[in-house]
User: What shape does this take?
Amino acid sequence: MNTSTSSLPTPPSTPGATSSLPRIAVLATGGTIAGAAPDAANTSGYQAGVVGVDQLLAAVPALSTVARIAPEQIASVDSKDMALPLWTTLAQRINTLLATDDVDGVVVTHGTDTLEETAYLLHLTVKSDKPVVLTAAMRPASALSADGPLNLLNAVTVAAHAAARGQGVLVAFNNRIHCARDVVKTSTYAVDAFQSPEIGALGWVQDGRVEFQRGVVRAHTLASGFAIDTVWPHVEIVASYAGVSRIAVDALVAAGVRGIVVAGTGNGSIHQALQQALAEAVSRGIAVVRSSRVGSGHVMRNGAAADDALGFVSAGTLNPYKARVLLMLALAAGHAAPAALQRVFDTY
Ligand code: ASP
Assistant: This one.
């Protein structure tokens, strides 16, 4: 196991100083940050989610100079297998903890694969202005130059910082602080694996310093009209590409989905075969949201498709995976008509 320490501030020498440090709950869910490989040079052939939260914390002694940590093992999953009931459990646990006076902030350790989805879900369903910060790692805990320990220290540093309050759910990764709504995984292997395309990070964290360089504009947390539920509307994603058929859409309609997000080409444009099937889905009461597979930029309403005429909704700057999160929450909250759903997508 990696037991590297960081060259961080020396522990407070004033008697009693430690008891005034912020209280941060660290909720572990698994991922590569808790991964172990057969040898230290192996950074891809590892098992995710096998190192417990106590071991993760023990690898970073400097944490005790930043916060009083309350660890919890919520799950031990590879986040590629993230499931909706676990989302419910995680969001409910965070809301319970933050409602008490005993917790000043929460850090969630998570796999990188679906981190952007979990972060956005929490951004919309956490009912507190206390900091919630997700972090992860690209290299397992057993690796040479594991990135998890420093990411964890930085995440706790951000969660313990007064400036993080009211910023919604944050992602601290590789020294940058990202907004949950904007952040996406952009590399399959690089340590600098997360970006906020076009818009950039919110700020940075380094050597105990935290700086925000811009604010969060869209509604989140206390201003969000959404609540975590145990019933998740069935929403799936389909992609548009050369030669695509309508088979997937027809199968989803037959399966009884409530919504379909399209990972369209370019400005959310959709192959005519798929578009016809999706227009028929709308006429059966299924919500259809146009997003883009491009990876940055926005989808213009009535741009590449006649949304008004076809009953489609534009996802704006949300990628298909985040658009699916918002569509599930919106449908669960009773928004069904295209105009109402478009308002939701324009707000969050
Ligand atoms: N498959 C891993 C996960 O998402 C990848 C990672 O954490 O980097 O749990």
Notes: The two ends are 41 Å apart (CA to CA).
